[in-house]
Design goal:
The complex is a heterodimer of chains A (about 300) and B (about 425). With about 300 residues, chain A is an alpha+beta fold. Chain A has two domains: about 1-60, no CATH class; about 80-300, 2-Layer Sandwich (Alpha-Beta Plaits), CATH 3.30.70.20. Helix content of chain A is about 25%, strand content about 15%. Chain A has helices spanning about 1-25, 75-80, 100-105, 145-150, 175-180, 195-200, 220-225, 230-235, 260-270, 300; strands spanning about 45-50, 55-60, 85-90, 120, 130-135, 155, 160-165, 185, 215, 240-245, 250-255, 260, 285. In chain A, the strands form five sheets. Chain A has a five-stranded mixed beta sheet. In chain A, strands 1-2 form a two-stranded antiparallel sheet. In chain A, strands 4-5 form a two-stranded antiparallel ribbon. By secondary structure, chain B is mostly helical. Chain B has a single domain (about 1-380, about 395-425), classed as Up-down Bundle (Formate dehydrogenase/DMSO reductase fold). Helices cover about 70% and strands about 0% of the residues of chain B. Chain B has helices at about 5-15, 20-45, 60-75, 75-85, 95-115, 125-130, 135-155, 160-165, 170-185, 190-225, 235-265, 270-305, 305-315, 320-340, 345-375, 395-415, 425-435. The longest helix of chain B has about 35 residues, at about 190-225. Classes of the chains: A alpha+beta (about 300), B mainly alpha (about 425). At the A-B interface, strand 4, helix 4, helix 5 and strand 8 of A face helix 7 of B.
């Protein structure tokens, strides 16, 4: 549901943008038709404004906005200046609801069976307790995938996010072999996406639409972060497992609560996965101590995808 | 006895011959296999790599194994032509062309099969327009291209004196081939100055091809060794790959020696002594490869690190153990045992050993790629059940077989066009002997 409202929001945003360009004398440079003057038809349509208010607009003013990537490829490759994004995943709060996963899949129009977020049942040794471990892309500061990419299709931005340019990827899958976290997903066949979305130009920040013969992975929802919002997995989790923020501001939020990042890591003993490999991930984990849920509570939800 | 062979007889023996009935059937079968492979590739282009059994965990499959296999085989060109030449190994001379033809065919198909493995081959040009020199793939592109050209030249330069001889037999070669010979070699007069120049050029090529050959296979091993994965994260990989490459290449030369000898009745030129000597070479290389295998598996086995446990157990006693022990026994140990006996170094047993080495080596390459990918650091979870194992689809087999058949086809065609034993060199050697 969360995502539907997001899409509505985006839609409204686009339409309002279209309206503005339609009403101002300055012509939309992207479309010749923008110069046509629209006459009111009398039919009103209800819309949601950016501020969440319901507004009425004449139907004649509604016009499709040319599909332009929200940011240029160059901008998307540079990132947001001054930011350094981090994620904290609190293992003591996870009961494998997989809401993060479904929100992510929905937002990125992923095919069934393709998951950028995986929730793994972990048990480190025979006598240690099992726990659920959600994994995203670690957005490493020493990313092995970026090191091996022969064409600079996957790249590291100055704000710490590792993204993929699906318009450039040649599908050699060296990055998949290089990633120790097995986070990367390949589009083995033609992705099943609604034609309207599939025909959009690809944006590195939304990672939509996925393309046949290229690699995909968690993008830290770079489009959301540019808007100053939380990634979909963070807002989708009802248990506040994920917290996301900017390490430069020393602050992370799971939507409901905001923490000082350094305090959180200090108080709860935060760590990163496979520190010994030297990949320097941007994703931190809080150990599964004083848990909110027993491990078993997540088993039922695991069956569907792991028969 | 052999000294009494006249020049005319040698030339008549060694001129390329038209395909007989068996030859035509052989070419026909290879062409059909290639066409089936092409059809499978058409399906792959149309539907994507989904037609393969590769999925997110096993993201590299038999295409990459096959690529490593081809690169490995191609190394033999540098061994027999360059290393033997520079080391003054005289008996290897009749085998140089066979080795060089195998090298050229293998390196061509190594390049093709790596394109087949790409998910978006239509973007191949990105490697040149957006290439990042930091990526080992770009290193591979550079050195494989270099190796390809050096190998072509190493095939071409020693051919020139032979082409001069071939041009004398317009009747036998037919109009088309004659024109072709004329096109590629009519400038060769055989003057002492030309011989001197050619000799110099070949020497330079022989010296340059050795580091390039070492580099192509070392870099190929680095495609794996530059990752963190169990079974690949090894400093031994470069040397291990090169040792294996020389072994499989020598196996291929032995098989080719046997087949050409039979098919073209070259018993006087590829003698039992050649088999005897190649047998010793194969033993040496098998033992060397065995040594690197011990290095590769014994120390991790001794430690049994947790991250490597699943991988090692899979090889030694698990899902891959049959293939693993097959590759070790058939590909390395049994050949050594057979070849240690004098009777094992006769042509027929050598041929069988050569086949064993090649088949063992192909499966060894399979084991280098797949088991590692099925043992990731994090559990294989939240993926469809089919992602948990890998068995190639018919399209993958067809393309792989098609590429192997294609390489054999190139070897066959080159052997049809050019003398498989250097004629001029044989003549010179005869004259030297006579004196």
């Amino acid at each position: 549901m969360e995502n539907n409202s997001r899409r509505d929001f985006l839609l409204t945003g686009l339409i309002t943008a279209g309206l503005v360009s339609g009403c101002t004398p300055k012509a939309d440079p992207f479309e010749a038709a923008a110069r046509d003057v629209a006459l009111p038809s009398g039919k009103k349509v209800k819309l949601l404004s950016v501020d969440g208010e319901e507004i009425e607009v004449d139907e004649a003013f509604l016009k499709p906005v040319p599909h332009m990537p929200p940011v240029s490829n160059t901008e998307a490759r540079i990132g947001i200046p001054g930011k350094k994004f981090v994620m904290v995943i609190d293992l003591s709060r996870c009961k494998n609801l997989k809401k993060c996963q479904s929100a992510c899949n929905h937002a990125h129009e992923l095919n069934p069976g393709e998951n950028w977020i995986k929730v793994d049942p972990m048990q480190d040794a025979e006598h240690t307790a099992p726990y659920w471990e959600p994994t995203t892309c670690m957005h490493c500061d020493e990313p092995p995938c970026v090191k091996v990419c022969p064409v600079d299709a996957t790249f590291k931005r100055q704000d710490g996010i590792v993204l993929i340019d699906s318009d450039r990827c040649i599908g050699c899958r060296f990055c998949m072999a290089a990633c120790p976290y097995s986070t990367r997903v390949f589009n083995w066949g033609e992705p099943e996406i609604a034609p309207a979305i599939a025909s959009q130009p690809y944006s590195c920040e939304t990672s939509v639409p996925q393309k046949k013969g290229t690699v995909g992975k968690c993008d830290f929802c770079a489009d959301m972060t540019r808007m100053g919002e939380l990634p979909h997995c963070v807002s989708a989790c009802p248990n506040g497992v994920f917290a996301f923020g900017d390490i430069n501001q020393d602050s992370v939020s799971n939507g409901a609560e905001t923490f000082r990042f350094s305090d959180l890591i200090k108080d709860k003993g935060g760590y990163r996965l496979m520190e010994d490999l030297g990949t320097k991930p941007s994703v931190y984990y809080l150990p599964p101590v004083s848990r909110n849920f027993p491990f078993e509570s997540g088993l039922e939800n695991d069956k569907e995808q792991n028969k | 006895m052999e000294n009494s062979i006249t020049d005319e007889k040698i030339i008549a023996d060694l001129l390329p011959q038209k395909f007989g009935k068996a030859g035509k059937i052989w070419v026909g079968i290879l062409t059909v296999i290639c066409l089936i492979g092409l059809f499978a590739y058409y399906r792959q282009l149309r539907y994507g790599l989904i037609v393969t059994a590769m999925r997110d965990y096993v993201s590299w499959g038999i295409y990459i194994s096959n690529f490593v296999f081809f690169v490995a085989i191609s190394l033999v060109g540098s061994l027999i032509t360059a290393i033997f030449r520079l080391a003054g190994v005289k008996w290897g001379a009749p085998l140089t062309r066979i080795a060089e033809i195998i090298a050229v065919a293998a390196i061509i198909f190594a390049s093709l099969i790596i394109i087949v493995d790409m998910g978006s081959p239509e973007r191949f040009y990105n490697l040149f327009t957006h290439g990042r020199i930091q990526s080992p793939i770009i290193w591979d592109v550079i050195v494989i291209t270099t190796y390809f050209f050096i190998s072509i030249l190493l095939l071409y330069y020693p051919l020139l004196p032979d082409i001069k001889i071939l041009l004398r037999f317009k009747q036998k070669s037919g109009n088309g081939l004659h024109k072709f010979y004329n096109y590629i070699g009519s400038f060769w007069q055989g003057t002492p100055a030309q011989f001197k120049l050619s000799e110099k050029a070949i020497n330079i090529l022989c010296i340059t091809i050795i580091p390039v050959a070492f580099t192509i296979h070392t870099v190929t091993s680095w495609l794996f060794a530059t990752t963190y994965r169990p079974g690949w994260d090894s400093t031994n990989f470069g040397a291990y790959f090169i040792a294996g490459a020389f072994l499989v290449g020598s196996g291929a030369v032995v098989v080719a020696m046997y087949v050409f000898r039979k098919a073209y009745h070259l018993e006087k030129y590829i003698t039992e002594i050649h088999f005897e000597k190649m047998g010793r070479v194969v033993v040496l290389l098998s033992l060397l490869y065995l040594y690197f295998n011990m290095n590769e598996f014994l120390t991790p086995f001794f430690k049994m690190k947790k991250s490597e446990e699943g991988y090692l157990n899979g090889l030694f006693s698990g899902d891959f153990s049959v293939v693993f022990w097959f590759a070790i026994l058939i590909g390395i140990i049994i050949p050594v045992v057979i070849l240690l006996f004098r009777r094992g170094r006769k042509p027929l047993p050598m041929f069988v050993v050569g086949i064993m080495v090649i088949v063992g080596a192909w499966f060894k390459r399979y084991l280098i790629v797949t088991p590692t990918l099925l043992n990731p650091f994090l559990p294989m979870h939240d993926v469809p059940a089919s992602y948990h194992h890998y068995f190639p689809t018919w399209e993958e087999w067809a393309i792989t077989m098609g590429s192997l058949a294609g390489a054999l086809l190139i070897i066959t065609i080159l052997a049809r066009i050019f003398p498989i034993i250097p004629i001029q060199e044989t003549l010179t050697e005869q004259h030297e002997k006579a004196i």
